[in-house]
Design a protein that fits this description.
The complex is a heterotrimer of chains A (about 240), B (about 525) and C (about 325). Chain A is built from eight helices and ten strands. By secondary structure, chain A is of the alpha/beta class. About 0% of the residues of chain C have low confidence. The chains are: A alpha/beta (about 240), B mainly alpha (about 525), C alpha/beta (about 325). Chains in contact: A-B, B-C.
Chain lengths: ~240, ~525, ~325
Amino acid sequence: MIQVSEVCKRYRRVEALGGITLAVARGETVVVLGPSGCGKTTLLRLIAGLETPNAGEVHIEGAAVSSPRRLVEPHQRRLTMIFQDLALWPHLTAIGNVAFGLRGNGRSRKEIQASAKEALRRVRLSDHGERYPHQLSGGERQRLAIARAVAGSPSYMLMDEPFSSLDPLLKRQMIGLLKELRESLELGVLYVTHNLDEALALGDRIVLMTRGQVVGSLNTEQTAVMTPLDLLGWYEACVGGKPDL
Amino acid sequence: MRLPRWAVAAAWAIFVLAALAPLAQLGLDAAGGDGASTSTTLRDLLLSPSQWQLLSNSLAIACGASALAAAIGVPFAFVTERTELPGRDIFGILYLVPLLIPPQMHAVVWSRLLAENGPVSQTLRETLGISAAPIGIFSIPGVIFVLGLAYFPFVTLLTRAGLRSVDPSLEEAALLRQGPLRSVARVTLPLVVPHLLAGTIFVFVFAIIDFGVPDILRVRVYPVEIFVQFSALYDKRAAVALALPLLIVTLALVGLQARLMRERAYVSFSQGIAGTRRYSLGRARSWAWLFCGSVLGLSVVTPVVALAAAAGPIRTYVEVTKGALASLETSLSLALIAAGITAVAAFVIAHSTLRSRGALRMSLHYLTQVPFAVPPILLGIGLIGLWNRPLTGWLYDSVAMVVVGYVAHFLPFAIRSVYGSLQQLSPALEEAAWLATPNRLRIAGQITVPLVRRGLAAAFLIVFVLAMGELGVSLLVVPPGIETLPVRIYNLMHYGADASVAALSLVLLAVELAVCLAVLGLTHGNRRADG
Amino acid sequence: MRSRLAWVGLACLLALGRSAAALGADVVVYTSLDQVYSQPILEAFEKETGISVKAVYDVEASKTTGLVNRLIAERKRPRADVFWSSEVAQTLVLKDKGVLAPYRSPSAEDIPAQFKGPEGYWTGFAARARVLVYNKNLLGLSDPPQSIFDLTKPRWRGKLAMAYPLFGTTATQVAAWYAVLGAERTEAYLRALKANGVVIVNGNGASRDAVVQGEVPLGFTDTDDVNVAIQAGKPVAMIFPDRDGMGTLMIPNTVAFLAGAPHSQEGKRLIDFLLSREVESRLAFCQSMQIPVREGVKKPANVPDFGDIRAMQVGYRDIANHMEQAARFSRELFAR
């Protein structure tokens, strides 16, 4: 369980996050919905350990990992992140991208290669192992980013608007893939987007953020019965200031 | 992601000890009243009208030379990097040559060629009947001409490194709406502004502290005043005070560059791996050829041919190399070591500066540029004052002192060139790795360095070439019995051994070119096929 | 891996450093006489005595500031034993700054008194003269001016080259004029030269080159600069001006012993060697045609006897005292 408690983050005089509380359990997907600039990316970066909170704490599996005074390093948190622009390493091949993070745990080259190939197989990129990111299509790059992320068997996955530039068909494929991986790895997913369809398709729970604050949340039962139109209405209401359920 | 603390501390320690500490020592000595032979007040010195005149001469030269270098260097970079011009590969190597010939040599060659009764004037007189020399080379425009031609490779080198790393998709997006020229001008050009400005600032700084070239071309400039304090008046305090305007001008420039670049992002998502888009020139091809050809003709062919003509038979080269072998070896090894140390330190310093925030980042940035425009003689005197003590005598007496001198003098240049490349690197690339592994050195070595290798290579080569030609500082700190190549060349020049000087300059050129090609070959490998 | 490389690099540097440090008998000399002339003499000393000579040569591009300022800066922990200069004013400055120590060499006994510092801090030998070089193709034999005061006449408008009088022997010459002619006359003369379009170049070599290439027919320079051109077959010759008047300024080489010299015995031996008749003879025979200040030193025919030259009657201390004044005035006058 990732537990975020009253976390605040300020950049110079701009308050990016003003006291956020939420939780993500293993096996569940929490979608953070909100317009651009509401602080979603900052939240992910704080959870990942790339930034220090000005106030509040983050706990993972009960252990405190982020507080104003203490910051556990990202690689020790057993989580992974997919960046908005994917951050694929352009000078490494697909298999190189996946294998990079696997080295250094005393595993042999063979083991690492095998794990990397397995990760690529999972996302159906087995034939593209020797290609470079710029030689892959948009969808293939997304899949590579996912393969890289899950190769190390993380417990949690943070995703920052990863499917925003995909066409509907591809998007459906990706969401399907994500669900598959989620189940097989028992991933806890924190998924940030401003797209309502994705939110409904993926999310067990939905949290709405604007301007650094949580302004609404929907639990599992509520999301199960919502249609996109309902969601839009709820979104408008919350952002307008009055949650209306 | 920040680099390990011990690495950052070590790199900054190198910078402080090598470059800043001698300046602090100078300041201390000056404040302590050491060196004033008569009681001259600071106010007297700074307000002298003739000194203002000299300062404005130096400023005019620096502005003109850097503008000329940019006017030549930027189009040259674009044409060789982004078009299908036939011969661009050769152009892309030859443009380095002017930098490998000491600027004083350029000045000597042009002053002889364009003198009143030099070959050019005589030919013009015979064919066209003009009685006066075409260009008054012994003038400020003459100095601008020579310095611009000699230093434009700085701009081209850095701009090319930047162009290679620009995200092609940004340009492609623009191409959908506008023609190639506008796309390049409005999208690509602004993206390489950090590199372009860095290169131009180099030229400016060199032009403003250089007085060898103006000296030969009989133009009085500001750095002479500092020399005068040392050679005629022996007033160290006044010399230090006179260096302050140069420092102020440089910091102002650096600040200007920071301001111009502040609101923009230069991050490239492909880091140049995706291959570069090359445009066909169509009808403009012959113009481009003419442009590149003239630039190289003036800046490469002319000096090399003039030097070869002065050198004469092969025998000269053999003789002079035999005599200079020891100093060539010394210079080569010291320059390579200094370039290596400087490149590594510059990388770490630039990286740590970029990863800090706000006010700290600005102050660190300025701090790294403080030693930029210090006249070599002042730096040398500061180094002696700092290191020539019983405790550090072992260092001062060794040849390592020359390396310290090179590092001190050129670290700001290296930092500037690496900084531009690092600015193009998205921090997310390092962060993605940081999420996967704790080994920050591994991340730096396998992720960051390969992606900025062109900027690093440029920094290495710049320091190498400058160190091979460095005179002012090495003269003051070289241990007795050791000789660097520039000392030998200038000694021969004073003696008037034109043939030997020319031959040795060409030998130096060949050696430097070989090293440049080796380094560029190692780092330019765009082995990935275009997708 | 990286740190290992760093240690290897550091070890290399220290090894290099140690190799440059003194092993066995050494002497350290800083010299501003052109390496082409001084190096063979130092090598001869090495051969004769077996003492290894470690030299630092100066470079004209540094405007002779390099070595002198280095010596002053190194005062607290001297590294050099001997200073061998191609002229005299800088040596006097060093004496004033307390960098030198007295040493009266036995080799210098027959050197005339005017070339020896009264307190034994420096000794002069093998002199050059400040002369006018002229282009034989542009001026016939009877045309060249015999006095420097002729140069302000309209006849020579724009036809004279001179090195920037803030550095080198030109600075010394101007200071000598101050000492001999007085401030008023000298300043008037310099203003007149400027008004007459004197071409200011960046050194004696450049002055000679301007004459060799025919840019101007006349130039102020030193005897060694002219001789190099003559030996190379260029159509130039020299005039010793003011034979009937003020005379020609003679500028000797000087050697001085440095205070706190790390190898004082070897240093004194080197000084004795440099001041010997043999060395003065060698300097006369080499292309710099240095003029021996002693009688009877073997020299080639084209080198005049010292006694035949009308030398300017001026004390070197006197010249040194006027250097600063000369520099300040020249700076103002010739700054453009």
